[in-house]
Amino acid sequence: MTTRSRTRALGSAASLVAVMVLISACNDPDPQPPVTSSWTTTTSTSTASTSTPTPLNPAQRDIKSAEETIGRYWRVLDQLAADPKKSLNLISTVARGQAASQSRVELGALQAKGWTQVGQSVVRSSSATTKDGKAFAVVACIDVSGVDVVDTAGTSVVKAGRPDRQEYTYTVSKVPQGFFVTVDTLKGKPC
Fold first, then answer.
1. End-to-end alpha-carbon separation of the chain, Å?
2. Of 10, 15, 16, 102, which residue has the fewest beta carbons closer than 10 angstroms?
3. Per DSSP, what are the bridge partners of residue 178?
4. pLDDT per residue over 106-138, tens digit each?
5. Backbone φ and ψ of 141, nearest 5°
6. CATH code for residues 16-33+58-190
7. Residue 49: what pLDDT?
8. What is the tens place of the pLDDT at every residue in 38-84?
9. What is the DSSP letter of 53?
10. Any signal peptide, and if so, which residues (predicted)?
11. pTM reported for the whole predicted model
């Protein structure tokens, strides 16, 4: 079973979030309001297949880095949801602000119940845009079809009918230390 629609119920393809989505599909007791922004500049990172790749300019590298941050974010969430002995401090390597706080709450709830994630979330696609080169809106399709959340007896706790693929919009911030997910509203739609 799988789902991440942040509802990400512990795992919109990546960890507690993926597991939480799988479990509750947005069961946050203190939901965060959706973030509204007016992102205007779109940059595509697609390139034609050639024998010699064209080097990316700095703006294109930043777009690519923002997109790749979502995959790193989900890998950490998956690791933490699968192993309750791991420190939730690992979240700080991929997230800050609201996204980090939300992930800690979701994963902490999962650990408190003794539930663990089996399987991993997959980021099927991601596309970033930016207005200022510092904050990026990243839309990503997260696949949790290979993810289940089980209780201490090994019984699945994922709600029936959980969607396997959900599209989420994240805010990724570029800071001197790198790229970090800073907003994850856990609000998804089918993708």
1. 17
2. 102
3. 175
4. 999 999 999 999 999 999 999 999 999 999 999
5. -100, 120
6. 3.10.450.50
7. 53
8. 333 333 344 455 567 788 898 999 999 999 999 999 999 999 999 99
9. P
10. 1-24
11. 0.74
Classify burial at 6, counting beta carbons within 10 Å of its beta carbon; exposed 0-12, middle 13-18, buried 19 or more: buried
Q: Is 153 exposed, middle or buried (0-12, 13-18, 19+ CB in 10 A)?
A: exposed
Q: Could you read off the pLDDT of 1-35 as tens digits, one per residue?
A: 333 333 333 333 333 333 333 333 333 333 333 33
Give the position of tokens 């597991």.
19
User: Under a CB-based contact definition with an 8 Å cutoff, are residues 78 and 144 in contact?
Assistant: no
- Residue listed under structure tokens 């939901």: 31
**Angle value at C-alpha 181, between 177 and 183, nearest 5 degrees:** 135
Q: For the chain, what are the domain ranges?
A: 16-33+58-190
Rounded mean pLDDT, 146-154 = 96
Q: What is the C-alpha to C-alpha distance for residues 166 and 62, in angstroms, rounded to an integer?
A: 24
